[in-house]
Amino acid sequence: MSKILTGVLCVFALLGSSLTWSNADEAREAVIKVVEAFRTDIVADKEILAKDPALLESRVNKILANVVDFDDFSKKVMGKYYRRASSEQRTRFANVTKDTLLKTYGRSLLELDADRINVLPLGPQGRGKETKVDVDFQMESGGMLNITFYMEQSKSGNWLLSNIVINNINFGLTFRKQFAIMMEQNRNDIESAISAWRASLAKES
Predict the structure, then answer these.
(1) 98 and which of 3, 70, 114, 140 could share a cystine (Cβ 3.0–4.6 Å)?
(2) How many domains does the chain have?
(3) CA distance linking residue 69 with residue 10, whole number of Å
(4) Where are the extended beta strands (E) located within 69-193?
């Protein structure tokens, strides 16, 4: 369960304005495509992928590359410290975050029940740019997760994951706070904080 909560991540921001219901439907369709890809490309081949971590990571990356901007995600996690980081540090932070989350997320997906993944009808929406899409995931162990995907339309028209809430835990905000704490614990030294971030993610994977 902890791996699911850590891995599903990917991602994350808090922005504002309003959406038409038509756009909201498009956001839900984008989530449905991702969920179906999980079902057919990951869960259905779980026996094969469980023995081939490289193939598993490759498939997860292919699915999430369409809806997650990992560089942007890492920028939001770093928050106010992003401007202080060098280009090399930003790239390394993004790569470490992406690689570790892909590994964790992939293994977590293998625990899902392929026949019991349900994208719920759209509910009331807020006034921001994000569209909220709820999905219920049944675990083979019997547990249930409710995951809220917050989708935002990019300038190019694609729908991207901007934040995720799992069982009422806001992971965009949580990750940002965690990195801020690491900065404080490492006397605001970005290099040391990135190393601490790598170690923290490695423990979860």
Answers:
(1) 70
(2) 1
(3) 9
(4) 112-119, 131-139, 144-153, 159-166, 169-170
Q: How many CB atoms lie within 10 A of CB 45?
A: 15
Classify each residue of 100-123 as buried b or exposed e, where b means 16 or more C-beta atoms within 10 Å of its C-beta: bbbbbbbbbbbbbeeeebebeeee
> Considering the domain boundaries, does residue 17 fall inside one?
no
Q: Does residue 13 sit within a domain? A: no
For residue range 155-179, what is the model confidence (pLDDT) as tens digits? 888 899 888 888 888 877 888 898 9
Q: Is residue 12 in some structural domain?
A: no
Q: Are 182 and 189 in contact (CB under 8 A)?
A: no
* Tokens 């190019």 found at: 156
For residue 195, the enclosing domain spans 23-202
- Record the tokens describing residue 169, joined without a space: 């835990």
